[in-house]
Write a structure and sequence with these properties.
It is a single chain. This protein is an alpha/beta fold. It has two domains: about 190 residues, 3-Layer(aba) Sandwich (Rossmann fold); about 180 residues, Rossmann fold. It contains 14 helices and 13 strands. It is elongated, with a radius of gyration of 21 Å. The chain starts with a strand and ends with a helix. Bound molecules: ligand GMT. Ligand GMT binds next to α1 and α4. This is N-acetyl-alpha-D-glucosaminyl L-malate synthase BshA. One of its GO terms (molecular function) is glycosyltransferase activity. It comes from Marinirhabdus gelatinilytica.
């Protein structure tokens, strides 16, 4: 099929999932057109089945806000006509589902029918989309999509609870190429990051308030009091400065490394022993899945879709949001016993296999077939 994928090209989970989906579909012989304002970060390899079309928004002084949705929907119309695209798959409701619907209407006026598949990722529903400023437009564009998917059952439930949704939502979980994370490097180069006797604990996110970065530091602070450990903080965001300050206040600044954004997540996870994700909200927790696929047990909160990914007592442990004492105790219980750590590492990898690309991408192919049958 010829499929257009619209996403945010940045380090956010929705863009990563959209990019990996496009790459996997291209490998299966589909023709994929990425349409967004910048080449997606994980789209390093262009192949004959993949094209990237940039949406440019000219900077016109009259506009206080540049009209991105308008430029995107115009680009979608042009690309659908030029490449005879059969499905528009938009990731993240805001503003992509809205732009997709406008493109569909413009094309319809020219006698061209195209279905819209909208994938809801999390914050487009639970944080941003829910705001009264956006809610009517988000509700409208979800209801006008031909097929709507959500990345977890929890997000589906949230969407139905928070919005007046008239269409059925299909749950298609996020996925991962497990093989890519299976000991990709013979030497993980732990020595670059920690002393020989230290455990390596990792957190990866966009360091926004919803990730509860202060809790990450609190948990680590308690763990390192009992067990030699170092913390690697991957990502950039507004909580970075307060977190660095907290580390200094607690006197652990030498044990915490803020390494910024990274395209080498698999390398970092290769030498990690434990992953922390104590988020306030998390529709799925792709970073937790990446950790598990690398054999890294996860200590997380039990919010949103995290319990659909991280299995209690199997791939790690889940606690109530903010219960840093329990999270620290669980972390210590895994790290202090080498047999326990080994067991959790193996189990984490096993659980991750359920979400392997090979199991999930066919679900999206079915979604496309269903969408095409609607128009
Ligand atoms: O919060 C993030 O990490 C970014 C955000 C996004 O939209 O890019 O992530 C959301 O989508 C990811 C991919 O589906 C999910 O794994 C994350 O759980 C979800 N984030 C939240 O719900 C807070």
């Amino acid at each position: 099929m010829k499929i257009a994928i619209v996403c945010y090209p940045t380090f956010g989970g929705s863009g990563v999932v959209a990019t990996e989906l496009g790459l996997a579909l291209a490998e299966k012989g589909h023709e994929i057109h990425f349409i967004t304002y910048k080449q997606p970060v994980r789209l390093e390899l262009l192949s004959k089945n993949i094209q990237f079309h940039e949406v440019s928004v000219p900077d016109y002084p009259l506009f206080h806000y540049q009209p991105y949705e308008l430029a995107l929907s115009s680009k979608l119309v042009d690309m659908v006509k030029l490449h005879r695209i059969e499905v528009l798959h938009v990731h993240y409701a805001i503003p992509h589902a809205y732009a997709g619907y406008m493109a569909k209407m413009m094309l319809q006026a020219e006698g061209i029918s195209i279905p819209i598949v909208t994938t809801l990722h999390g914050t487009d529903i639970t944080l941003v989309g829910n705001h009264p400023f956006y809610k009517p437009a988000v509700t409208f564009s979800i209801n006008k999509s031909d097929v709507v998917t959500s990345v977890s059952q929890s997000l589906k439930d949230d969407t139905n609870r928070l919005f007046d949704i008239t269409s059925e939502i299909d749950v298609v979980p996020n996925f991962i190429d497990v093989e890519k994370y299976t000991n990709p490097y013979t030497d993980c180069q732990r020595g670059l990051m920690a002393e020989e006797d230290e455990f390596i604990i990792t957190h990866i996110s966009n360091l926004r308030p919803v990730k509860r970065i202060q809790d990450v530091i609190e948990i680590f602070y308690r763990v390192q009091q009992k067990i030699p450990a170092t913390l690697i903080m991957v990502g950039e965001g507004p909580e970075k400065d307060p977190a660095e300050r907290l580390c200094r206040e607690k006197g652990i600044q030498d044990k915490v490394r803020f390494v910024g954004n990274s395209s080498e997540i698999d390398k970092i996870l290769c030498f990690s022993d434990l992953f922390l994700l104590p988020s306030e909200k998390e529709s799925f927790g792709l970073a937790a899945l990446e950790a598990m696929a690398s054999g890294v047990p996860v200590i997380s909160s039990n919010t949103g879709g995290l319990s659909e990914v991280n299995e209690q007592g199997v791939s790690g442990y889940l606690s109530d949001v903010g219960n840093v004492a329990e999270m620290a105790n669980n972390a210590i219980s895994i790290l202090k016993d080498p047999d326990e750590l080994k067991k959790f590492k193996q189990q984490a990898k096993q659980v991750a296999k359920k979400f392997d690309t090979q199991n999930i991408v066919p679900m999206y192919e079915e979604v496309y077939q269903k969408a095409v049958a609607y128009v």
